[in-house]
Amino acid sequence: MQEALLYEREEGGNVLCRLCPWFCRLAPGETGRCGVRENQGGVLYSRNYGRVAAAAVEPIERRGLYHLFPGSIILTLGSWGDNLPCGTRPLTAEMPPEAEAKRLLDPERAASFAVEHRCRGMAWGYREPAVWMEYVLDCAKMARANGLFTLWITKGFIAQEAVDLLGPYLDACALELLAASGSVYERSCGRDAWTTVSAIPRYLRERWRVHLEIHTPLLPGTNDDEGTLRGLADWILEELGPETPWHIWRKEGLGLPPASAEALEHARTLGRDAGLAYVYVQTGTEESLSHTRCPSCGQTLIRREGKYYVKIAGIEEGKCIQCGHEIYLRRSIFK
Known about the structure:
The chain is an alpha/beta fold. It contains 7 helices and 19 strands. The chain has helices spanning 107-116, 133-145, 160-166, 182-189, 194-208, 226-240, 261-274, and strands at residues 2-3, 7-9, 15-17, 25-26, 37-40, 43-46, 54-59, 73-78, 121-124, 149-154, 172-176, 211-218, 246-250, 279-282, 292-293, 300-305, 309-312, 315-316, 319-320. β9 (121-124), α2 and β10 form a beta-alpha-beta unit. The longest helix is centred in the middle third of the chain and has 15 residues, at 194-208. The chain starts with a strand and ends in a 15-residue tail after the last strand.
């Protein structure tokens, strides 16, 4: 365990956690809604610091990033804890007691492992790395010191001061957005989180020059109606610009029927009709990888086939080789 960042000590041994908008006030022995931040004797600790629940050396496309170092290999790490479980998952994500005794990976070793396996970057995702902030921050510093790019895969339910801790070391963010609607978040996640979540992407881009790609799991009966999808597409266009990639994907394992291929394709059409240049559909299979085409002339720029085969064939100096249209692509760690 490690002492947590962003908290205040109060009378009677209580603490106030400032990591996310829940602002949990915890008495000694209590754990926050995330399930991994605990008050022990008036000190807030991160119970999941360095505790790895999942790890993979994998193509970046497996994480649904198409405009960030295409074709590169990354090390993705994940832990326990979630401060905004959505869908049919429980509201809390308690870390199992036995997890504290195993799977410890310190930041220095994580960065070394990535370099040894010829990774181009490091990513933190799987559940919700926002509640793994202390470890992610230390890893991000080590990653940048070793010339690796950094990627945060998050739902974005986090306080701005926490974003400012990570921002200087963060290259990219895959942000999961359910809808541009507080009511959808209320129904799916138990809280109207939209006000908080909607402020994060523009702030990341404008303040910290972070590359953004938006991910939306299509959940039947929750966010798959035309009005909700149009609303989110319009919001992305107006707030983040037409060049921002939008990934619409099928989410399974929540006790809900998965979105149909027709529903996914309809969502893609709505995004394109709204004016978004890069709208991708992913079904969770390798065969669902999409090519990147020039939004101006239709030339295939990045070809993706089979088991994450990626070939950049139509881009030169950041522009389409056929028409000269500038392509939104991040291929440098220099901000």
